[in-house]
Amino acid sequence: MRRVAICGFSMCKVGNHYQKSLSELFAEVALDALESAGNPDIDAIYVGNMSASEHTFQKNLGVLLSNSIGLNSTPCKLVECADGSGGAALYEGYNSVASGLYDVVIVGGVEKMSEVLQGENRKIRSMTIEQEYEAFHGLSIDGEFAIIMRYYMHYYDVPKRQFALFAVQMHKHAAGNRYAKLPYEISLEAALNMQTIADPLTLFDMAPTGDGSAAVVLCPLERAREFTDTPVEIAGAGQASDTLALYDRKNILTFKATSKAAEIALKTSKLKISDVDLFEVHDSYTISGFLALEDLGVIERGKVGQAVEEGLIDLDGPAPTNLSGGLKARGHPGGATGVYQAVEATLQLRGEAGKNQADPAEVALIQNAAGIGSLVTVHVFKRI
Amino acid sequence: MRLPKVWREIPRRYRLEGAVCKNCKFCFFPPRPVCPNCGSRDLDSQKLPQKGKVLSYTVVRKSPDDFKSYVPYPVALVELSGGVKIICQLTDCDVDEISIGMPVEAVLRKVKEDGEDGVVYYSIKFRPLLSAKKVS
């Protein structure tokens, strides 16, 4: 396998881009990413998207988006793994370059969540959970996470306040990220007094959805200097899955796919979790952020709330996490989220993360999950 | 939705028919061709116990569009006697009286309908175990 580098990247602010279509949003960012790599010839395109066929009835998205940047014969495909699509597309792109199949590929993630109204969106987002025996009973994705969250609170005997602290921390980080959907701080009191969506889960336990587009250009590490002066290596990648249904889980307080994917990614990169300087994890809900940090082995089980309060995941802490604001405050543009994480890790390792620049920033780990951790990708990034 | 889909699911949805592995005796729901525990394909159909307890639950207050007229409604992860877990709505109780560990029993109830001319969906829901309820 060859070593793989990121030689170009771009993203847009997560928000409601009412004035742009899905392909316009993709093209703007993808062309910018190509520009940053000196406009190389592209061998293939991988696109992560969750719900274009529900939002705009478009199938075969790879071709539409490829055409939108003027490529009419390049191999391209959509990678759909619910809200883990972005990371899964990156994983495909990484493997295609590492294996020697392609030299230069573009991996994009794009989502237009604002095309439909809230209720319809909740239905579409809930397509990530098992449909026949879970969603059938009126369970939404919010409700599914609420069931896990309640059990976590019961099992570890932790108060709701610990989850609110996580939300407050994410907003603190987002305040320094100009690409964030909600770039402002919130008070603990506000986080504790939001409307309930599915008990005990409130609005501030959920990541806000949004429109977004992010792209990275990958190439073999040995060729990276042809395209950029500051390449970042993708030193390892791992993917694993779990059961789609919650009722099939032996233990609902662990997303074991995260541990497995991380183990593979770290093994490939010949690094340990303790070598990682910063994390971007998939906090689609505060509880999924908790489980991610536990399953990665960063924080002891049941202790995430306490660790957050002690500043462990703060910019100045020993394990800075979601300096972008995470899904909670950067926003969660569905199938684009995993590619956002890749761009954010790249910015950090290049020392270009502005107000939220971590120091040291030699190794970053990103974790992108689908639904209730049914499918997880983990990538380890290394400064060259 | 088309009628055949509802019709073919009747044994599972109305009677909680699951499967038991002849090799490792693992019981699971819904049935599928391979035992999720040992990988055996030698399986039997088995009706699941109708009693269990609430492992965890939520009360859905903001629902997907097709359940809008039913909010708020409780949905639980129920563990049946014998260990099989299923997701179902809870019924015949006030949402404030639900708790983790609460004993429950299966009853047949309407889940939703597909508009005026569509299919009416029925399924097992769980209610607090009557014999366990305090007589006030």
Tell me the layout of helices and strands:
The complex is a heterodimer of chains A (384) and B (136).
Chain A: E1 4-11, H1 22-36, E2 44-48, H2 52-55, H3 61-68, E3 76-79, H4 85-98, E4 105-111, H5 118-125, H6 141-156, H7 161-174, H8 188-192, E5 196-198, E6 201-202, E7 212-220, E8 232-241, H9 256-269, E9 278-280, H10 286-295, H11 304-309, H12 326-329, H13 337-349, E10 363-370, E11 375-383
Parallel strand pairs in A: 2-3, 2-4, 9-10
Antiparallel strand pairs in A: 1-7, 1-8, 4-7, 5-6, 8-11, 10-11
Helix pairs in contact in A: 1-3, 4-13, 7-10
Chain B: H1 3-8, H2 10-15, E1 17-21, E2 27-28, E3 43-47, E4 51-60, E5 73-80, E6 85-89, E7 103-113, E8 120-128
Antiparallel strand pairs in B: 1-2, 1-3, 4-5, 4-7, 5-6, 7-8
Quick summary:
With about 375 residues, chain A is of the alpha/beta class.
Task: Please tag this protein with its features.
heterodimer; A: 384 residues; alpha/beta; Peroxisomal Thiolase, Chain A, domain 1; two-stranded antiparallel sheet; 11 strands; B: 136 residues; OB fold (Dihydrolipoamide Acetyltransferase, E2P); 2 domains; three-stranded antiparallel β-sheet; 2 helices; 40% strand; globular
What would you note in describing this structure?
- The complex is a heterodimer of chains A (384) and B (136).
- Chain A has 384 residues and is an alpha/beta fold.
- Chain A has 13 helices and 11 strands.
- The longest helix of chain A has 16 residues, at 141-156.
- In chain A, strand 10 and strand 11 form a beta hairpin.
- Chain B is mainly β and 136 residues long.
- Chain B has 2 domains: 1-48; 49-130, OB fold (Dihydrolipoamide Acetyltransferase, E2P).
- A 5-stranded antiparallel beta sheet of chain B has the order 6-5-4-7-8. A 3-stranded antiparallel beta sheet of chain B has the order 2-1-3.
- The longest helix of chain B has 6 residues, at 3-8.
- Chain B starts with a helix and ends in an 8-residue tail after the last strand.
- At the A-B interface, helix 5, helix 6 and strand 5 of A face strand 4, strand 5 and strand 6 of B.
